[in-house]
Known about the structure:
Elements: H1 4-18, E1 25-29, E2 36-40, H2 57-69, H3 73-88, H4 102-115
Amino acid sequence: MTGNLFGDILSDLGAALAGGLGLAPSANINPETGRGLFEPVHGSAPEIAGRGEANPAAGILSLAMMLDFLGMTDTAASVESAVNSCILSGQVTRDLGGTLGTSEAGDAVRRAILYGET
Length: 118
């Protein structure tokens, strides 16, 4: 719990140490209203925007975090499981040693959620 500037720096460092910014979801919860904003730690990754290189896992895991926050724990677990399955099977973007682009990696997670395919 810290202010925006220091929180941003700490979350980026923590994500990098834990495996990379492409895997780290985040949530900013207003303690007064209970409302939250869920997004990847890396934000919109403007330096690689439009190139098909961004890892969608952090955005997808942010969705799972939001679903859990909203009480949809089973659905959140399914989304997390699909991301994990894709990582374990190597269906990942280049930052994790794979060959997929952003859309392809997102499609792989979608298939894992819908059909259990990896």
